[in-house]
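Trying the structure run again after the queue cleared.
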Amino acid sequence: MKPFRLFLLSGIVLLLAQSAFAVAPYRNAPPVETGINVAPPAEKELTRKEKREMRKAMKEQIRNAIKNGKAQGASDDMLLLIVLSFLLPPLAMYLYEGDVTTRFWISLLLTILFWVPGVIYTLWVILAGN
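Done. Tokens:
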């Protein structure tokens, strides 16, 4: 009986998630460049040295993104929400939304069932909104 309940709950979450994400993209919007390139070359297997260099480049890009964010006025509240979304995703969603909304319930359900999808969903909503 327990696997059947889990199956039903996951189906409900998928239905709610599909209705929440059913937004048509803006067709004439220019592509957004993040400046972070994470795709490794597919031609060959990377050596240790290449992996290390790739990690260093990623860290440098993250540092630059943080510096640019601070220069553009990124608030401490956003940093608090990001940290809180790793610890308690539904609370972060509640603080971000300001009320108990459908997004809060989806985050709560995903966190109760699997926790990691709850974190991913909450981070996605918070970071996509800004």
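The first helix runs from residue 2 to 20. Worth checking whether this holds up in the mutant runs.
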